[in-house]
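This section describes the prediction task in plain terms. A model, or a person checking by hand, is given the sequence of a single protein chain and must write out its three-dimensional structure as a string of C-alpha coordinates. No templates, partner chains or ligands are provided. The sample shown here is typical of the held-out split.
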Amino acid sequence: MTASIWLWSHLQATLLLALLFSLLPLQGAATRRVLIPLAALALPLWPLGTIDAAGFLYGYLGALSLPGLALLGALLLRRLGGTELLTARERHWWRAALLFGALLLYPMALGLGPFDPYGLGFSGPLLPSCLAALAILAWFTALRSGALVLLAALWAWQLRLGESANLWDYLLDPWTALALLGVEIRRLLSRRRAPSDTPGSTP
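The expected answer:
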Protein backbone atom coordinates (compact mmCIF):
# COMPACT_ATOMS: atom_id res chain seq x y z
CA MET A 1 0.00 0.00 0.00
CA THR A 2 1.46 3.34 -1.05
CA ALA A 3 1.59 6.34 1.28
CA SER A 4 -1.19 8.16 -0.61
CA ILE A 5 -3.52 5.15 -0.49
CA TRP A 6 -2.72 4.71 3.21
CA LEU A 7 -3.70 8.33 3.83
CA TRP A 8 -6.83 7.93 1.68
CA SER A 9 -7.97 4.82 3.56
CA HIS A 10 -7.34 6.39 6.97
CA LEU A 11 -9.06 9.64 6.04
CA GLN A 12 -12.22 7.88 4.92
CA ALA A 13 -12.18 5.57 7.94
CA THR A 14 -11.83 8.57 10.27
CA LEU A 15 -14.67 10.44 8.59
CA LEU A 16 -16.98 7.42 8.55
CA LEU A 17 -16.31 6.57 12.20
CA ALA A 18 -16.75 10.18 13.27
CA LEU A 19 -20.10 10.29 11.47
CA LEU A 20 -21.15 7.06 13.18
CA PHE A 21 -20.11 8.37 16.60
CA SER A 22 -21.90 11.67 15.98
CA LEU A 23 -25.17 9.71 15.88
CA LEU A 24 -24.66 8.49 19.46
CA PRO A 25 -26.61 10.33 22.20
CA LEU A 26 -23.55 11.95 23.77
CA GLN A 27 -24.26 14.85 26.10
CA GLY A 28 -22.39 18.13 25.94
CA ALA A 29 -20.98 20.04 23.01
CA ALA A 30 -17.42 19.80 24.36
CA THR A 31 -17.72 16.03 24.66
CA ARG A 32 -18.87 15.72 21.08
CA ARG A 33 -16.22 18.06 19.74
CA VAL A 34 -13.32 16.40 21.58
CA LEU A 35 -14.09 12.72 22.16
CA ILE A 36 -15.58 11.96 18.76
CA PRO A 37 -12.58 13.28 16.74
CA LEU A 38 -10.10 11.57 19.08
CA ALA A 39 -11.88 8.21 18.88
CA ALA A 40 -12.29 8.50 15.11
CA LEU A 41 -8.58 9.27 14.69
CA ALA A 42 -7.41 6.47 17.00
CA LEU A 43 -9.63 3.54 15.99
CA PRO A 44 -8.50 3.35 12.32
CA LEU A 45 -4.97 2.60 13.62
CA TRP A 46 -6.16 -0.37 15.69
CA PRO A 47 -4.23 -3.47 14.49
CA LEU A 48 -6.22 -6.33 13.02
CA GLY A 49 -3.72 -9.02 12.12
CA THR A 50 -1.43 -7.78 9.36
CA ILE A 51 -3.48 -4.62 8.70
CA ASP A 52 -5.17 -1.98 10.79
CA ALA A 53 -8.87 -1.17 11.08
CA ALA A 54 -8.69 1.43 8.30
CA GLY A 55 -7.17 -1.08 5.90
CA PHE A 56 -9.80 -3.65 6.87
CA LEU A 57 -12.60 -1.16 6.16
CA TYR A 58 -10.94 -0.09 2.91
CA GLY A 59 -10.78 -3.71 1.78
CA TYR A 60 -14.55 -4.06 2.15
CA LEU A 61 -15.77 -0.65 1.01
CA GLY A 62 -13.13 0.32 -1.51
CA ALA A 63 -12.13 3.95 -1.94
CA LEU A 64 -14.67 6.71 -1.51
CA SER A 65 -14.49 9.41 -4.17
CA LEU A 66 -13.15 12.88 -3.43
CA PRO A 67 -16.64 14.43 -3.60
CA GLY A 68 -17.82 11.73 -1.21
CA LEU A 69 -15.04 12.55 1.25
CA ALA A 70 -15.73 16.28 0.91
CA LEU A 71 -19.44 15.83 1.61
CA LEU A 72 -18.66 13.63 4.63
CA GLY A 73 -16.36 16.33 5.99
CA ALA A 74 -18.94 19.06 5.47
CA LEU A 75 -21.64 16.96 7.16
CA LEU A 76 -19.41 16.26 10.15
CA LEU A 77 -18.54 19.92 10.65
CA ARG A 78 -22.24 20.74 10.65
CA ARG A 79 -23.12 17.96 13.09
CA LEU A 80 -20.25 18.48 15.52
CA GLY A 81 -19.69 22.20 15.50
CA GLY A 82 -22.61 23.77 13.69
CA THR A 83 -20.27 25.06 10.96
CA GLU A 84 -21.97 25.24 7.58
CA LEU A 85 -19.44 24.95 4.75
CA LEU A 86 -21.97 24.58 1.95
CA THR A 87 -24.81 26.90 1.09
CA ALA A 88 -28.24 25.48 0.25
CA ARG A 89 -27.50 26.20 -3.42
CA GLU A 90 -24.21 24.32 -3.23
CA ARG A 91 -25.83 21.32 -1.53
CA HIS A 92 -28.48 21.21 -4.25
CA TRP A 93 -25.80 21.43 -6.95
CA TRP A 94 -23.78 18.62 -5.38
CA ARG A 95 -26.79 16.33 -5.12
CA ALA A 96 -27.89 17.02 -8.69
CA ALA A 97 -24.41 16.68 -10.21
CA LEU A 98 -23.45 13.48 -8.41
CA LEU A 99 -26.81 11.78 -8.89
CA PHE A 100 -26.82 12.70 -12.58
CA GLY A 101 -23.30 11.31 -12.94
CA ALA A 102 -24.24 8.10 -11.13
CA LEU A 103 -27.37 7.58 -13.24
CA LEU A 104 -25.30 8.20 -16.36
CA LEU A 105 -22.38 5.98 -15.40
CA TYR A 106 -23.50 2.93 -13.45
CA PRO A 107 -26.42 1.60 -15.57
CA MET A 108 -24.40 1.96 -18.79
CA ALA A 109 -21.31 0.43 -17.15
CA LEU A 110 -23.50 -2.59 -16.38
CA GLY A 111 -24.41 -2.94 -20.05
CA LEU A 112 -27.78 -1.16 -20.05
CA GLY A 113 -26.82 1.38 -22.70
CA PRO A 114 -25.33 1.58 -26.19
CA PHE A 115 -21.82 2.35 -24.91
CA ASP A 116 -19.82 2.25 -21.69
CA PRO A 117 -18.81 5.74 -20.49
CA TYR A 118 -16.54 4.21 -17.86
CA GLY A 119 -13.93 3.62 -20.54
CA LEU A 120 -13.61 7.38 -21.08
CA GLY A 121 -12.02 7.66 -17.65
CA PHE A 122 -8.91 5.67 -18.52
CA SER A 123 -7.42 7.92 -21.17
CA GLY A 124 -8.18 10.57 -23.76
CA PRO A 125 -8.92 14.27 -23.33
CA LEU A 126 -12.74 14.21 -23.43
CA LEU A 127 -13.63 13.49 -19.79
CA PRO A 128 -10.79 15.56 -18.24
CA SER A 129 -11.67 18.49 -20.54
CA CYS A 130 -15.35 18.29 -19.60
CA LEU A 131 -14.38 18.13 -15.94
CA ALA A 132 -12.12 21.19 -16.22
CA ALA A 133 -14.84 23.13 -18.08
CA LEU A 134 -17.40 22.18 -15.42
CA ALA A 135 -15.02 23.31 -12.68
CA ILE A 136 -14.53 26.70 -14.41
CA LEU A 137 -18.29 27.09 -14.84
CA ALA A 138 -18.85 26.22 -11.17
CA TRP A 139 -16.24 28.76 -10.06
CA PHE A 140 -17.74 31.63 -12.05
CA THR A 141 -21.26 30.79 -10.88
CA ALA A 142 -20.24 31.06 -7.20
CA LEU A 143 -20.12 27.29 -6.68
CA ARG A 144 -16.57 27.46 -5.37
CA SER A 145 -16.68 24.23 -3.36
CA GLY A 146 -17.70 22.31 -6.47
CA ALA A 147 -14.91 23.82 -8.54
CA LEU A 148 -12.25 23.08 -5.93
CA VAL A 149 -13.29 19.47 -5.38
CA LEU A 150 -13.58 18.76 -9.10
CA LEU A 151 -10.09 20.15 -9.71
CA ALA A 152 -8.78 18.17 -6.73
CA ALA A 153 -10.24 14.99 -8.25
CA LEU A 154 -8.60 15.78 -11.58
CA TRP A 155 -5.21 16.36 -9.96
CA ALA A 156 -5.52 13.25 -7.78
CA TRP A 157 -6.18 11.21 -10.92
CA GLN A 158 -3.29 12.80 -12.80
CA LEU A 159 -0.92 12.04 -9.93
CA ARG A 160 -2.43 8.56 -9.38
CA LEU A 161 -2.92 9.22 -5.68
CA GLY A 162 -5.64 6.58 -5.49
CA GLU A 163 -5.63 2.92 -6.37
CA SER A 164 -7.67 3.33 -9.56
CA ALA A 165 -6.38 4.51 -12.94
CA ASN A 166 -9.89 5.62 -13.96
CA LEU A 167 -10.97 9.24 -13.49
CA TRP A 168 -14.57 8.22 -12.79
CA ASP A 169 -13.48 6.53 -9.55
CA TYR A 170 -12.14 9.84 -8.26
CA LEU A 171 -15.46 11.54 -9.06
CA LEU A 172 -18.06 8.96 -8.03
CA ASP A 173 -18.42 5.95 -5.81
CA PRO A 174 -21.44 3.67 -5.27
CA TRP A 175 -21.72 4.40 -1.52
CA THR A 176 -21.97 8.16 -2.00
CA ALA A 177 -24.44 7.68 -4.86
CA LEU A 178 -26.64 5.40 -2.72
CA ALA A 179 -26.50 7.81 0.22
CA LEU A 180 -27.52 10.76 -1.96
CA LEU A 181 -30.28 8.70 -3.55
CA GLY A 182 -31.58 7.86 -0.09
CA VAL A 183 -31.53 11.55 0.88
CA GLU A 184 -33.42 12.47 -2.27
CA ILE A 185 -36.05 9.75 -1.72
CA ARG A 186 -36.49 10.93 1.86
CA ARG A 187 -36.94 14.52 0.68
CA LEU A 188 -39.57 13.47 -1.87
CA LEU A 189 -41.47 11.40 0.70
CA SER A 190 -41.43 14.26 3.22
CA ARG A 191 -42.83 16.61 0.57
CA ARG A 192 -45.64 14.17 -0.19
CA ARG A 193 -46.52 13.87 3.49
CA ALA A 194 -46.41 17.60 4.16
CA PRO A 195 -49.93 18.51 2.85
CA SER A 196 -51.59 15.87 5.05
CA ASP A 197 -49.98 17.43 8.14
CA THR A 198 -51.38 20.95 7.60
CA PRO A 199 -54.20 22.17 9.90
CA GLY A 200 -57.67 21.43 8.65
CA SER A 201 -56.67 18.53 6.45
CA THR A 202 -58.47 15.24 6.79
CA PRO A 203 -56.56 12.44 8.53
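For orientation: The beta strands are 47-48, 51-52.
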